[in-house]
Specification:
The structure holds 2 protein chains of 2 kinds. By secondary structure, chain A is of the alpha+beta class. Chain A contains 24 helices and 24 strands. In chain A, helix 18 links the parallel strand 18 (about 450-455) and strand 19. The radius of gyration of chain A is 25 Å and the shape is globular. In chain B, helix 1 runs antiparallel to helix 13, helix 9 (about 230-235) runs antiparallel to helix 10 and helix 10 runs antiparallel to helix 13. Chain B is globular and about 90 Å long. Chain B has a domain at about 105-225 and about 255-295: MetI-like fold. Chain B has helices at about 1-35, 40-50, 55-70, 75-85, 100-135, 140-155, 160-175, 190-225, 230-235, 240-270, 275-280, 285-295, 300-325, 330. The longest helix of chain B has about 40 residues, at about 190-225. Classes of the chains: A alpha+beta, B mainly alpha. Chains A and B meet through helix 1, helix 5, helix 9, helix 19 and helix 20 of A and helix 2, helix 3, helix 5, helix 7 and helix 11 of B.
């Protein structure tokens, strides 16, 4: 049915040149602003049922409607998602620890103002931390109390945070790592007079370069206006005046309506589209582009890999050789083609192969992967030539001309390599594990072997869902029956902690953009995780699943505990985390396919200067908090 | 004597109305509790889909959300609390929009759902029955055959295909109407009605077009059969005018089951028009229900479905009370 709809739209798109879609200087938006002064973005959300609620500490407040991108300031440090650089925003510099990391001194940027003209200083930052710690109805209250003892204001521009125990990650707790940060400094002069757990904050006083102008009471749009005193905001001080006078966030409904809206120039930036929709956009509007101007179009720097993971608590998936067999049984080029026609950087390690992780881990580990690692003392499952093979097949299958790419460029686009396809070895490993092949079908304990595969609905994660289905398809071709079930994330989230699954699609391997990904692996601490099938434990389910080799599990746990106390930016930490990745690769509890692949279309009819592969000053994550730093680079196109 | 009989009839209907509502909302309380989804895990999944957090932070968030959402206490205690609240239309906070009241969110969107669905249902019913009546009563006329063919052609078209084609033509190619509904509430009454009308025309037209086909087909079949009845032939032989036969004999007898159908359709207008809301981004409760179910937002499910249960049973009650007025046979029973 979806194909039929795309076909219908394609026919109508063909008529577009005759219709004419031009930008008019005097055109108004439907919220009453001049179109040429208004950047129109699509929120990473559906209709907002709480449109007048802007308190960042209420769980029902919709953050993705521009609030956390441009109105609040997330954390007091931002991150550049391409270079990994940590950028002080409300803070004036990086925080300084004492010797044992129990005290942190933080300097606050001078000259910051709230949108009502009041001064933003260390008192507001300290007040916000104390407010969270002092109100157990705020979601992070217990967590902050477990970390911090107290906060002391030394002067208007300096504060000191005292920790209960040595704590090395204060800048990842109070700063942005990827999407944003739950810590948002609020104005003391407002929040000290209200209950932060119930105050809706419908006329927000904020620290970002934009302030609330208007919103739809039915929750379909929110309009922001550039502050006249933008120079007194972190964005203004760091990058200058934001280009658009207004930024309008609005929803466009169905997938088809979204595509038509961009073809009609009714939206400048869209959240994420499927590859087939991007093709329609590129054919129908010459001003639309994505990260790359041509194939492979998408950025692959979203910091969570997508793939599948196994319930290692149930047989035969507790046997690592069975998991390796299921890996080698797949034609990975075909899997990659079936997800997004080959778009995506292969991402086999326990961190996603984003540009920063390619530099810090994937490329330095290439030699180990290709020449040192074995699964049974002699067999190496790594294919270092995967990128070249994929490029050749894409030319054969889809006609994409990849001849201009050097080997190095292919590695940047498709990754440093990936798992081999070796069906003979897969059959050997399964046979050794006690499974039988009869008439082309695999049997386990005398019964046909059926692997249940749970996937998310495509509207929740197209990439994860398609990865799960593509892998299941390969298992079917290898003679293993599968049962695919599509289940909403809320249900999956309920099943994982009790181990109520066999295999599930996932975004299991995440990271930030620096060498430190401790926050993403602290669930691997074997002294903390406990797992008993059918019982809810604590922590993230897949990390608590047993690793069949207790010695290996202990080594992984030791590294996690050691890294917790180390300087997150040191070379020693990088070396330890490299060792962690090697051991996790050996444990092989999941098969991650691509790093987060996002097709983000930009329309340059009204605005230009968006980040691209040719001008990668930032990632194209306009629904992340770093979008605030993109806005000064965006300027009128006409 | 007649008054006493009507009193008994009314009391019986009121009792059954009350029981249907009570049993219905009781089911609606318990059914979501057996959903495999969990609102706390749903919220955590939502948070983790945006940003990754350290495991210990997730543990604390989970505990905090359980406390905030008030999911403690036995099921019986929760049920009693729910019944008390339901009487006051207080279903507690929407868990996914915490701490905003589920009822206040539903009440914000309900007028649009009811307005659109009510108008389109009544228009489709009226139009469909008139055309069906003409097509059935005057079945040998060319115009009747044409009208019937139009209805038969339109009826099987899936709503979303029709809506999409209409949207592509009127919003994308000719740009007469907005792609997505924009109803302006804060710039005066004139602007509100202008934007409401502009945003509602296409959703309403598509709903009427898809809805009226069934009424045409069913009314045509019934009026055709009724027109063959002996009392109609007898009326003709008595020399009664065709117009009088059409209205007083055929239409009046054929319309009775259609009124039942209308009352059921009217009860359904509170449930929301999900496809319309998604395709035209029209405000309404349909998307609220959909999201509430997938995210296990118990309170929102109870708020939306309870209103629906009350409205459907009330519509059925109204139909039961109207029947005696239009059908003398029921009046005499």
């Amino acid at each position: 049915m979806r194909k039929m709809v795309v076909l219908l739209m394609a026919v109508l798109m063909a008529a577009l040149p005759f219709i004419g879609a031009t930008a008019l200087a005097g055109e108004m938006t439907d919220v009453g602003t001049l179109r040429v002064e208004t950047l129109i973005c699509e929120p990473d959300d559906s209709v907002n049922p709480t449109p007048g609620q802007f308190n960042p500490y209420m769980t029902g407040t919709r953050q993705s409607w521009g609030a956390h991108q441009i109105m609040w300031v997330d954390g007091i440090w931002e991150v550049n998602t391409i270079t990994g650089e940590r950028i002080p925003t409300i803070a004036a510099d990086l925080a300084t620890p004492n010797e044992d990391y129990t005290e942190w001194t933080i300097k606050i940027r001078e000259g910051l103002k709230w949108s009502d003209g009041e001064t933003l200083d260390a008192n507001d930052v300290a007040f916000t931390i104390n407010m969270i710690m002092g109100n157990d109805k705020l979601t992070d209250s217990a967590y902050y109390n477990s970390l911090f003892e107290k906060v002391e204001v030394l002067d208007d521009l300096t504060l000191k945070v005292y920790c209960d125990n040595p704590f090395t990650r204060i800048m990842t707790t109070l700063g942005v790592n990827t999407w944003g940060c739950g810590f948002r400094v609020v104005p003391e002069h407002i929040y000290s007079t209200v209950d932060p757990a119930t105050f809706p904050d419908s006329e927000p006083v904020t620290a970002g370069a934009y302030k609330l102008k208007d919103y739809d009471q039915l929750g379909t749009w929110t309009l922001y206006e550039r502050r006249e005193d933008w120079a007194n905001t972190p964005t203004g001080m760091l990058y200058g005046e934001p280009g658009p006078k207004y930024v309008l966030y609005r929803v466009f409904g169905s997938q088809e309506a979204r595509v038509m809206a961009m073809l009609n120039n009714e939206v400048d930036v869209m959240n994420e589209v499927a590859y087939e929709d991007l093709k329609l956009l590129l054919d129908g509007n010459p001003n639309v582009h994505a990260w790359y101007p041509e194939f492979p179009f998408a950025t692959t720097d979203d910091a969570c890999s997508k793939g599948i993971f196994f319930n290692t608590a149930i047989k035969p998936f507790d046997d690592v050789n069975v998991r390796w067999a299921l890996t080698l049984a797949c034609d990975w080029v075909e899997v990659s083609e079936n997800v997004f026609e080959g778009i995506g950087r292969m991402s086999a390690l326990q961190v996603p192969a984003v540009t920063a992780m390619q530099t810090f881990y994937y490329k330095p580990m290439s030699d180990w992967l290709a020449n040192e690692f074995t699964i049974d003392g002699e067999y190496n499952p790594w294919n270092p030539n995967f990128s070249k093979e994929l490029a050749e097949r894409l030319t054969e299958d889809f006609g994409y001309d990849m001849s201009a790419y050097s080997d190095e460029e292919l590695i940047d686009v498709f990754g440093v390599g990936y798992f081999k396809t070796d069906k003979e070895k897969a059959a050997e490993l399964l046979t050794n594990a006690g499974l039988e092949l009869k008439d082309g079908k695999w049997y386990y304990e005398g019964q046909p072997w059926v692997i249940p595969v749970i996937v998310h609905p495509e509207e929740e994660s197209t990439q994860a869902s398609r990865s799960g289905k593509a892998i299941a398809d390969q298992w079917e071709k290898f003679g293993i029956a599968t049962e695919i079930t599509t289940i909403p994330g809320s249900d999956i989230g309920n099943r994982l902690p009790i181990g109520d699954f066999t295999t599930v699609d996932s975004w299991d391997a995440c990271s930030a953009y620096s060498i430190d990904f401790y926050n993403n692996i602290n669930g691997w601490n074997d002294e903390v995780y406990k797992f008993e099938l059918g019982e809810r434990g604590t922590g993230i389910a897949n990390y608590r699943l047993p690793i069949s080799n207790p010695e290996l599990a202990a080594k992984l746990g030791t590294i996690v505990r050691d890294v917790a106390g180390m300087d997150p930016n040191s070379e020693e930490t990088q070396a330890m985390l490299t060792e962690f990745l090697k051991l996790a690769f050996e444990a092989h509890i999941n098969i991650m396919v691509h790093s987060g692949t996002k097709i983000v279309p930009f329309n340059e009819t009204y605005w230009t200067g968006f980040p691209t592969s040719e001008n990668p000053y930032e990632g194209p994550w306009w629904w992340w908090s770093n979008f605030r730093f993109t806005l000064p680079r965006i300027q009128p196109a006409q | 004597m007649r008054r006493v009989r009507f009193g008994k009839y009314l009391a019986g209907r009121l009792l059954s109305w009350f029981m249907v509502i009570f049993i219905g909302i009781t089911f609606m309380f318990f059914i979501p509790r057996f959903f495999p989804a969990d609102p706390v895990e749903g919220m955590i999944a939502k948070i983790l889909s945006m940003t990754s957090l350290p495991e210990d932070q997730v543990v604390y968030i989970r505990e905090s959300l359980r406390m905030q959402y008030g999911l403690q206490g036995t099921l019986w205690q929760q049920y009693l609390g729910f019944l008390k609240g339901a009487v006051r239309l207080d279903f507690g906070p929407s868990l996914m929009n915490f701490p905003t009241d589920a009822s206040s969110i539903v009440m914000r969107y309900l007028p649009y759902t009811v307005g659109l669905s009510l108008v389109t249902t009544v228009v489709a019913w009226t139009l469909g029955n008139l055309i069906g009546m003409l097509a059935g009563f005057r079945k040998n006329k060319k115009s009747s055959v044409v009208l019937e063919y139009i209805a038969i052609f339109i009826y099987p078209i899936p709503y979303f295909i029709l809506a999409l084609v209409v949207q592509i033509l009127f919003c994308f190619v000719w740009r007469i109407f907005p792609l997505t509904a924009t109803i302006v509430l804060n710039q005066g009454a004139a602007r509100f009605w202008e934007t409401l009308l502009r945003s509602s025309i296409l959703p309403a037209c598509t709903m009427v077009v898809v809805g009226f086909g069934w009424w045409v087909i069913s009314m045509k079949a019934m009026s055709e059969n009724t027109a063959e009845e002996e009392y109609v032939r007898f009326a003709r032989l008595r020399g009664i005018r065709e117009g009088k036969i059409a209205t007083s004999y055929v239409f009046r007898n054929s319309i009775i089951p259609q009124v039942s159908g209308l009352s059921i359709s009217l009860g359904g207008v509170f449930g929301g028009a999900l496809m319309t809301e998604i395709i035209f981004q029209y405000p309404g409760v349909g998307q609220l229900v959909q999201k509430a179910i997938t995210q296990a937002d118990y309170n929102m499910i109870m708020a939306t479905v309870s209103i629906s249960i009350v409205s459907i049973s009330t519509a059925t009650l109204a139909a039961d009370l109207i029947y005696p007025l239009i059908d003398p046979r029921i009046r005499f029973q």
